[in-house]
């Protein structure tokens, strides 16, 4: 299963939001690695915001440095080009998103909910995160195809994580029916497409309303009886 590289001791905050945004001017005595880390965070956050607004193809390095408040020289000290910067943003955002969802799933498991309620709670957490993080969501879900390369690989690994998480849930489902291995990834792909359609239409705030639809997708593809009734809350 895909493993995040971030430690559970790190505080969870807005995805990709820099933790240190305003460095003091002139001599400041800050450690060089702290300064470099702040610059990198700001560039990662900036490219996410600009790509969300303009699209990946239209985004330039100048756009990113202007938004981050750093020089082009500083940009190239951290990244070889726009593609590498966006790939780093996708990588970091994926790790943070998975980390936050893992924490939410763990809370649901601790409540000892019945299996379908557990899945519903997990889907609600995922959709709520998308609605809370529209800049990251638009960049990550809509622009990675255009960016290609490593960014696309990071998105694919995220879908694999969803598929593997669903497989683990399904393995514990009572009286489960055997399904093709491809069904788990197909469910993740279909859920991501439903979210993507909302984002493409500029309806990020409506993403949480997809809860019943996404739950139905998962239950139907995994052969759970009465999927429609469960998805409607009946």
Radius of gyration: 19 Å
Q: Tell me what the CATH architecture of the largest domain is.
A: Orthogonal Bundle
In the predicted model, the low-confidence regions spanning at least 5 consecutive residues are: 1-13, 26-32
Beginning-to-end CA distance, first to last residue:
33 Å
Total domain count: 2
Q: How many E strands?
A: 0
Give the class from helix and strand content and strand pairing.
Answer: mainly alpha
Q: In sequence order, what are the helices and strands, one letter per element? A: HHHHHHHHHHH
Please tally the helical runs, counting DSSP H or I stretches of 4 or more residues: 11
- As a percent range, the share of helical residues equals 55-70%
Main sheet makeup: none
Indicate the CATH class of the largest domain.
Mainly Alpha
CATH topology of the largest domain: Tetracycline Repressor, domain 2
Strand content: under 5%
What do you see in this structure?
The structure is a single chain. This protein has helices at residues 32-54, 61-68, 72-78, 82-110, 115-132, 134-142, 144-147, 149-171, 182-200, 211-221, 227-232. By secondary structure, the chain is an all-alpha fold. It folds into 2 domains: 32-80, Homeodomain-like (Arc Repressor Mutant, subunit A, Orthogonal Bundle), CATH 1.10.10.60; 83-232, Tetracycline Repressor, domain 2. The longest helix has 29 residues, at 82-110.
């Amino acid at each position: 299963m895909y493993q995040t590289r971030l430690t559970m001791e790190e505080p969870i905050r807005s995805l990709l939001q820099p933790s240190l945004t305003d460095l003091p001017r002139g001599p400041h005595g800050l450690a060089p690695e702290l300064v470099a880390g702040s610059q990198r965070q700001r560039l990662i956050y900036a490219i996410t915001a600009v790509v969300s607004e303009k699209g990946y193809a239209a985004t330039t390095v100048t756009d990113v440095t202007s938004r981050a408040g750093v020089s082009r020289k500083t940009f190239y000290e951290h990244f070889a080009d726009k593609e590498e910067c966006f790939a780093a943003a996708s990588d970091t955002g994926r790790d943070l998103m998975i980390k936050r969802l893992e924490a939410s799933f763990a809370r649901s498991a601790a409540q000892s909910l019945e299996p379908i309620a557990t899945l519903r709670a997990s889907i609600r957490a995922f959709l709520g995160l998308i609605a809370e993080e529209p800049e990251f969501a638009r960049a990550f879900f809509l622009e990675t195809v255009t960016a290609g390369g490593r960014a696309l690989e990071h998105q694919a690994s995220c879908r694999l994580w969803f598929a593997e998480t669903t497989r683990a849930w399904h393995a514990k489902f009572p009286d489960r029916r055997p399904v093709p291995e491809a069904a788990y990834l197909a469910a993740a792909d279909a859920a991501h497409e439903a979210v993507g359609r909302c984002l493409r239409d500029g309806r990020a705030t409506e993403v949480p309303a997809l809860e019943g639809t996404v739950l139905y997708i998962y239950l139907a593809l995994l052969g759970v009886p009465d999927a429609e009734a469960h998805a409607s809350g009946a």
